[in-house]
Specification:
It is built from 17 helices and 13 strands. It has helices spanning 2-8, 10-39, 74-79, 101-104, 153-201, 207-238, 271-287, 300-331, 336-348, 353-376, 391-415, 419-427, 432-461, 466-469, 496-505, 510-545, 547-550, and strands spanning 47-53, 59-73, 90-97, 108-112, 116-120, 126-130, 135-145, 148-152, 241-246, 252-256, 260-264, 290-291, 296-297. The strands form 3 sheets. Strands 6, 7, 8, 9, 10 and 11 form a 6-stranded antiparallel β-sheet that branches. A 5-stranded antiparallel β-sheet has the order 4-3-2-1-5. Strands 12-13 form a two-stranded antiparallel sheet. With 551 residues, the chain is an alpha+beta fold. It folds into 3 domains: 47-121, Roll (SH3 type barrels); 140-269; 304-494, MetI-like fold (Orthogonal Bundle). The two termini are 46 Å apart.
């Protein structure tokens, strides 16, 4: 009976079904964890005030956000050094984000539930998001202008709203002046210096050139000094106001408004107010630059860098992959050499990505980039231009990595085009190239697009090779800006995958970085899922379009 059951093949069907089900459960579980932790990062959590008994017996007040909790069996807790009574079966601990790192040296603390004597959520508690030192938790005491108190109590909140809004506007003006206006002047001065060096190397530097360059430099210096005067006035104005906050210990701290991103009272918020706050924080996460060693702020440079690199990679890999597949399928003589090439292409798809990164660093960066610098940018020596990791080399390296996927997918699509279609086109008088361009390639386009999008999806999640050929922890400027030639292929850039690695494994503040890791991972997963869905939609549309022709 059992022997015949095995011969029927049913056990293997059930085994495959169990394996697929297990994989689906694991994938859904991982995605569920990422979604739960990533989406909740932007929600305004309530601030709790705890009356807590320390091990010494002293009662202290602790305020902060409840972040996590653990339940440890008594046996394991006792083996770890905790003292539990005989009637305690488990040890429950809470992770509280206490903030105020500049005062206490740490902004997270584990506490034991059994030592909590009282707990409340006072409505007057506030959260201050700062540009440095993380969050501050406490109560608002007063608003100061030039060191003098101008508002206290409820009036302080009205004044704070107005002054903080003004301070944020000033901060935007300062950032625009420093990054855009002064940055453009520094860029132009560097270009001027390189042009002068180029003329000197060519022995073309003379008195007329020196006068022209001196006039240009004088104009830049004048603009720079004007911006510096404007900056000084803005800095003086933004440093005028500050708030006074009281900590849980009763100590008062003066915080300049120039160092504050946002102030809110989560215990006072209603549900719809929290919804509005949630989407505001989500918008900041997607549109602003990171701060505090990438553990706070947004990830816009990483999003921009990822999209820019993927677009360049697509432009590079598509023509090479399609042309290679067309040659192998339509023009190459089918024999031992062609079969060997196909085996090599398939093997390239299995090469570890870090190998491509090492190759890109050695060949593209050092050999090609070094020779380009020697031929076209001798004035920049010894500083490299293209002889250093950057956007161009990262895009080419990933194009090489994903090339086998595009070749194999395109060749399979070409193989599915019926031979009768080709013969019919040739019989009607079309040349081979016309048949290929107007008939064969359109019918193979579903497979071509699928291969391309799968390549894009893989490139979006790669990290290892990018660490060697262009990605950095924090890029001071984007590869695309308003300075000629606008697209700077030699610049380093940020990437979502590397950002997750850096924040998750290289951050000095692990607990503070953890929510950002989940949020960034969720965004990267959504990007990859979107690309794969786009592949399916495009493939199905093109397949339906040419189904009648195939029939």
């Amino acid at each position: 009976m059992i022997k015949s059951w095995f011969k029927s093949g049913s056990p293997w069907i059930w085994l495959n079904a169990a394996a697929v089900s297990t994989c689906l459960i694991m994938v859904v579980g991982v995605l569920g964890l990422i979604v739960a932790r990533g989406v909740g990062h932007f929600w305004a959590s309530p601030i709790v005030q705890l009356s807590y008994q320390e091990d010494s017996g002293e009662i202290k007040t602790i305020i902060g956000e409840h972040v996590d909790s653990t339940v440890t069996p008594a046996v394991m807790a006792k083996s770890s050094g905790f003292k539990l009574s005989d009637d305690e079966d488990v040890l429950i601990q809470y992770l509280i984000k206490t903030g105020n790192r500049d005062l206490t040296g740490t902004d997270f603390r584990w506490i034991q539930e059994r030592n909590i004597k009282a707990q409340s959520q006072p409505v007057e508690m506030m959260v201050i998001e700062r540009r440095e030192w993380g969050n501050f938790y406490g109560t608002l005491t007063a608003i100061k202008e030039n060191g003098q108190v101008i508002a206290t109590g409820e009036q302080a909140w009205k004044v704070l709203d107005e002054r903080l809004k003004h301070a944020l506007e000033l901060h935007e003006k300062i950032a625009h002046l420093e990054k855009k206006e002064i940055g453009a002047i520094n860029y132009a001065l560097e270009k001027l210096r390189l042009k002068q060096r180029s003329l000197e190397l060519k022995n073309a530097w003379n008195e007329q050139s020196a006068k022209e360059f001196a006039d240009k430099k004088l104009a830049y210096d004048t603009d720079y000094k004007n911006h510096q005067v404007e900056l000084a006035g803005l800095y003086q104005e933004i440093r005028r106001d500050s708030l006074v906050a009281t900590t849980e210990s009763g100590a008062e701290l003066a915080i300049p408004l120039s160092k504050i991103v946002d102030v809110y009272q989560p215990n006072k918020m209603g549900f719809f107010t929290k919804i509005t706050h949630y989407f505001a924080k989500l918008g900041e996460f997607l549109s602003e630059d990171p701060r505090e060693a990438n553990t706070e702020g947004g990830i816009f440079p990483a999003i921009f860098g990822t999209i820019m690199m993927v677009m360049m990679m697509s432009v590079i890999v598509t023509p090479f992959g399609v042309i290679a597949a067309v040659y192998l399928r339509e023009y190459a003589k089918q024999g031992f050499v062609t079969q060997l090439i196909r085996i090599a292409v398939n093997n390239l798809a299995g090469v570890p990505s870090i190998v491509y990164g090492v190759f890109g660093l050695g060949f593209f960066v050092y050999i090609l980039g070094g020779n380009i610098d020697a031929l076209f940018f001798p004035e920049a020596s010894p500083a490299p231009v293209f002889g250093t990791p950057g956007l161009l080399w990262a895009s080419i390296t990933l194009a090489l990595l994903t090339l086998p996927v595009v070749i194999v997918s395109t060749e399979e699509g070409l193989a599915r085009v019926p031979r009768a279609i080709r013969e019919g086109s040739l019989a009607l008088g079309a040349t081979k190239i016309e048949t290929l361009w107007r008939t064969v390639l359109p019918m193979a386009s579903p497979a071509m697009m699928t291969g391309l999008i799968l390549a894009v999806a893989r490139a979006a999640g790669e990290v290892a090779p990018l660490m060697l050929v262009g990605v950095v922890k924090l890029a001071p400027t984007l590869p695309l800006d308003g300075n000629y030639p606008f697209l700077h292929l030699d610049r380093k850039f940020m990437h979502l995958g590397f950002h997750i690695y850096d924040v998750g494994f290289q951050s000095p503040n692990v607990e503070a970085a953890r929510p950002l890791v989940y949020a960034t991972a969720l965004l990267l997963v959504l990007v990859i899922i979107g690309l794969n869905l786009a592949a399916i939609i495009i493939r199905n549309h093109l397949r339906e379009k040419y189904r009648a022709l195939e029939g």
